[in-house]
Amino acid sequence: MTFIDTHSHIYLSDFDEDRSLIVEGAINVGVHKILLPNVDSGTIDSMLRLCQSYPDNCLPMIGLHPTSVKENVEDELAIVEKLLKENSFIAIGEIGIDLYWDKTFFAEQEEAFRFQVALAKKYNLPIVIHSRDSFDELFNLLDGMNTTDLNGVFHCFTGTEIQAKKIITEYGFKLGIGGVLTFKNSGLAEQIKNIGLEHFILETDAPYLAPVPYRGKRNQPAYIPLIAQKLADVKGVSIDEIAELTTQNAKELFNL
Questions:
Q1: Are strands 174-177 and 200-202 parallel, antiparallel or unpaired?
Q2: Cα separation of 220 and 26, whole Å?
Q3: Helices (H), the chain
Q4: Most buried of 8, 45, 82, 164, CB within 10 angstroms?
């Protein structure tokens, strides 16, 4: 079985002591590709170094995370645009709206999202959307920006079946499924049980949101098979089918 972890932050300091072991551990369980969404200008160097060390396994995105949208948003977006001209990336991400932690820079988050979606269209790249407590706000933005040349994924999907169907039918986006699916009281299994497998890709969001039985501990790409097994149980199929379909979905979305 071959898997792709479509969303992992293993370039962060959480992995400074054992990063190579983390990558090798993922490869050993069949996770041969790890896709790396950026956070802000402070994470670019460590992310690119990791990709240089494992060019066949670790692939970078570029973007400004909504929780890093502050007073200096224009400077941060200028860096994103500059790097797009100088380097190859597989996606624009992680971008979006986050209204869980702080609503102070909501207007700036909206503007940063619009700007980065425009970059995605210009460079023909998919977008990776962070949508914490912000589905309605993102839908309002996408309704005015959605065109046939825009595609992407709602990372760490935790919404309702109605929201999932809007995402896949109106926007043609994928749903990123991670460790939350394994949480006993998340309710996510019920919301996605009627959604076709062609709409899912797998992710860890490492070091965050580790699946059961590692919930509360540091997440890592090697845990992707645990998420895949839970999705197989929910959908009533084999883990081999989950591996094959989600890997193909990821390859198509990110042009791998």
A1: parallel
A2: 8
A3: 19-28, 44-53, 73-86, 106-123, 135-143, 161-166, 188-192, 224-235, 239-254
A4: 8
Rounded to an integer, what distance in angstroms lies between the CA atom of residue 184 and that of residue 163?
21
CATH number for the domain spanning 134: value is 3.20.20.140
CA distances in angstroms from 193 to 141, 200, 202, 232, listed in the order given: 27, 11, 15, 10
Average pLDDT of every residue of the chain: 97
Ordered strands of the 152-154 beta sheet: 92-98, 127-132, 152-154, 174-177, 200-202
Contact call for residues 94 and 130 (beta carbons, < 8 A):
yes
Candidates 91, 133, 141; CA nearest to 111 is 141
Neighbours of 49 (CB within 10 A): 12
DSSP string, 143-195: HTT--TT--EEETT----HHHHHHIIIII--EEEE-GGGGSTT--HHHHHTTS
Q: 206: which residues sit within 8 A by CB, 6+ positions away?
A: 5, 8, 9, 10, 218, 219, 220, 221, 223
Residue 54 belongs to domain spanning: 3-254
Q: Are 90 and 59 in contact (CB under 8 A)?
A: yes
pLDDT at 202 over 90: yes
Structural domains in the chain (count):
1
* pLDDT tens per residue, range 10-66: 999 999 999 999 999 999 999 999 999 999 999 999 999 999 999 999 999 999 999
| Res. 101: pLDDT tops 90 | no
Amino acid identity for residue 155 in this structure: H
- Supply the DSSP symbol for 95: E
CB atoms within 10 A of CB 55: 9
